[in-house]
Amino acid sequence: MSVVVFFCVVATVFMARDITREWLLERAHEAGQSRLLAYVGDIRRTLARYHFLPYLIAEHTPSLALLQGDSGSLHGVESYLAQLDKAANTKGWHILSPRGELVASSLNRVALKEQEGKEIANMLYQYGGEVITLSYLAQGEPRYYLGAPIYAKSQLIGIAVARVGLEALTDSWIAANERVLLSDKHQQFFLSSHQNFNVSILNQHSGWPSSQHILSDGTTTEQVLLAGERYLVQKVQLDDLQWQVHYLTPLAPLAKTLNWVSFFSVVSAALLLAFGLFLYERRQKIHSKQLLQQLIADSEMRLRRMINKTNVGLLLLNRDGKIADINPMALRYFNLSESLASRIFAWQLFETVHGNTVVVNVLKSLSKQNEVGELNNVEVMAQRSDGSRFPVLFSIVSLSRSSEAAFLVTVIDISKRKKAENTLRAMNDDLERRVAERTHALQAAQEELVQSGKMAALGRMSSAITHEMNQPLTGIKTLLSSSELLIARDQTDLLVSNMRLVDTLVDRMASMTSQLKVFAFDRPEALQPISIEASLQEVFRIYQGRLDQVTLNVQVAANACWVQGEQQRILQIFGNLITNALDAMSESLTPELTITAEMSDEQVVISFTDTGSGIEEDVLPHVFEPFYTTKKMGEGLGLGLAITANNVRDMKGSLRVSNNKTENGDRAKGATFTLVLMSVNDDVKTDMPSLTQRA
User: Fold this and answer.
1) DSSP per-residue letters across 528-563
2) Per-residue pLDDT at 695 exceeds 50
3) What's the CA angle centered on 486, arms 482 and 492, to 5 degrees?
4) Res. 465 pLDDT band, cuts 50 70 90
C-alpha cells in the first residue's frame, strides 16, 4: 500500500512540475512577444529619423555637377559631405556612380568597399529607385547604409549613400540589460545588445544548438544553449530591411522558480505521504492489536488445552506461595480436588522432615523475593493428601503476570524411574561382584599359565642343555678311560690324539655356556657409529669357506653406510643371520644370498634374503623364542635367533622375518630377515674415516 502511495505522490510531483514548467514557458513566451514587438517599433522609429538623409545630397548642385563631369567641384563636395556627416552624427557619406563606383566620400576613400558599392547599386535597381538599406558585418563591426538615387533630367547619374551608426538602437537595450540580436538576410549577426553575445563568435558557428518545444496552446518555441546558459528564442522578420530580430529570454530564473515549485511540491507530497502513512500505520496498528489480542486469546485457549492434556504436573503459584492454578495431572499426582488445592500452600505438598529441605525453603520464601534462582530437575519427595510419599523432579521459574509476581512449578513423577534405577543398581552391584570373581579367577589362571610357561621353557632348556652336555661329557669320559689304558701301554701317540679330542669337546661345551652367557647380556651403556660395510667384510672373512659355495650379492646405499650400535653385537647379529641363511640353503641347488642396506625415515633397513627352504607359516611367530629350534637334536640350543633379537632390541632396533613372495603374491623360495637400526647423524658422518682409510 505504501509503495502505491509513494508512486502516486511521485507521479503527482512530476505532473505538477510539468504543469508549472508549461505555465512559466507560456508566461515567458507572452512577455517575450510583447518585448519583441516593442523593440521592432524602436528599430523602425530610430531608422526613420535617418531615412531622409540621402536626399540632402540628391538636391546638392555641386554634387550634381561632379556626377556630370565637373571634377573641379570634388573638394567642395567632399567638404560638404564631411559637414553633413558631422551634423547628422553619422558614420560617413558617399557618392557613387550608377554602377556603384566611389566618386566622393566624407572619409577615407577606402572606407566604402567596392563590393559594398556595387551591392548598393544592384539593390537600388531592384527596388525601383526608392531609398534602400544595406547592412554589413565587416571585421566584427556592423555597417548600415541608406542609399537614394540621384537624377538629372530623369536620368540616373549617381547614388547618394549615408552610413548610419546603430549605437542608438543598442544603448537603451544595454541599459535595460536586454538580450537582442540582429541578423541580416544571410543569417549573419551584425548587432548584439549584450556583452556575453559577441557577433563574431556567433557567426563563426553555423547556427546554434537549439531544441523545439511545443506549448499547450500549440505554439512552437525554440530553446538555445549559449555561453553555458539556456535561453528561450523569439524572432521576427523585417521584410523591408531583410533583418531578423532575435529576443532571448534567460531560462535560469524559470528553472530556479521551477526548482522551488518542485521543492515545495516534494515537501507537500512528502507531508501528505507521511500523513497518509501515519493514518495507514495507525490503522494497521489498531488492526494488528486486535489481531494480536485474538491470537493471544486463541493461544491461551490452546495452551490451556495442552496444559490440561500434558503428562507433567503444573502449578501456578502467587507471591504468597498459594496455588493459583493447577492442571489435572498435578491433581492426580497429589490426589487433590480443585477446592482443596486452592486453600493450601505449595510447600505442604512436599516432604518436610526427611526430604530435600531446599525445595520447601524456596516455596516458603516466595513472598520475600520477586525472582528465584535456577532450580531445575531437583529430586524431592512429594506427599499426597492421604499421606503417601512418592519421588518427583521439581523445577520452578518466575513469571511476569501483569504487575504481580508469579511462579510456575513443574512436577514429574519419577516413581517408575526410581524403581528401575534401584533394580538396575542391584543388577550392577551383582554384575560387579561377578566380574570381580571372574577377574580373580582369570588372574589366578594367568599366573598358573605363566608358571606353566616358565616350567615348559625351563624343561626345554634343561632338556637341550642336558642333551648337548651329555654328548661331550660321555665322549670325554670314554676318552679319559681309554687314555688310562694307553698310558699303561705307553702308547703316547694315541694318548696325544685323545687329549686333542678332549680339548675339542671342552671347547664345544664352552661355546654352549658362552651362548647362555650372551643371552643374559645387559644392554650396552652407549651406542657408537658402526660401519656396515666393514662389519660385513669381517663376517665374510670368518665364513669365507661356506660363502664360496653360494652366490653373494651386496648392495649398500651411499647414505646408509653407518648405524648406531655396538661392534661385537653387530658382528654377532650379521654372523647369526648369515649362518642361518647358509643353513637354510644347505640343500638348495642354486643357493643365492642377497644383502641390501638403504635409508627409510632416518633409519637404516638391512635385508638378508636367501633362496632356501623358507619357514613354515605356523613356525614364523616362534622363530625368535629362546630354545625353540627346528633343527635336529644336537645341532643347536635354539638360542641363535633369540640372542640376535635381544641384541637388536638392546640397540633400539627391530628384527622381523617373512617368507619371500612372487609378484603375484604366491610364496617363493627362501625367506627374508629385515633388520632395522638407527642411522648416524650427518654431522657425525663427516668426521668418520672412509672404509678405505679404515682398511
Assistant:
1) EEEEHHHHHHHHHHHTHHHHTTSEEEEEE-GGGSEE
2) no
3) 125
4) low
Q: Locate all alpha helices (DSSP H) within 176-221, ordered by sequence.
A: 199-204
Q: Please name the amino acid found at residue 561.
A: C
148: burial class by Cβ within 10 Å (0-12, 13-18, 19+)? buried
What's the order of all strands across the beta sheet hosting 210-214?
Answer: 189-192, 180-183, 243-250, 229-238, 220-226, 210-214
Q: At what angle do helices 252-309 and 2-48 cross, to 10 degrees?
A: 180
From the centroid of its chain, how far is CA 396? 47
Q: What CA–CA distance (Å, rounded) separates 227 from 194?
A: 12
- Residue 385 CA, distance from chain mean position: 67
Please, are residues 395 and 376 in contact by the beta-carbon 8 Å criterion? yes
CA distance 197 to 202: 7
Concatenated DSSP letters of 496-519 = HHHHHHHHHHHHHHHHHHHHHHHH
Strand partners, 149: 159
Confidence of residue 219 (pLDDT cuts 50, 70, 90): low
- 142-197 confidence digits (pLDDT tens): 677 788 888 888 788 888 888 887 776 776 677 667 778 777 777 777 777 776 77
**pLDDT band with cut points at 50, 70 and 90 for residue 694:** very low
Rg, the chain, Cα only: 68
pTM of the model: 0.36
Contacts of 208 (CB under 8 A, 6+ apart): 202, 224, 225, 226
C-alpha cell at 136: 554589413
**Sole residue written with cell 646405499:** 557
Pairing of strands 592-600, 551-556: parallel
First vs last C-alpha separation in the chain: 105
Q: Which residue has the cell 491470537?
A: 295
**Which residue reads 648369515 in cell numbers?**
578
The per-residue b/e assignment along 350-361, b for 16 or more CB within 10 angstroms, e otherwise, is: bbeeebeeebbe
The DSSP bridge pattern shows strands 313-317 and 404-413 to be antiparallel
3-state secondary structure of 397: strand
Task: Give the distance, in angstroms, between the CA of residue 433 and the centroid of all CA atoms in the same chain.
Answer: 61
**Distance in angstroms (rounded) separating the CA atoms of residues 176 and 155:** 48
Q: 566 Cβ partners below 8 Å, 6+ apart? A: 524, 527, 528, 530, 650, 651
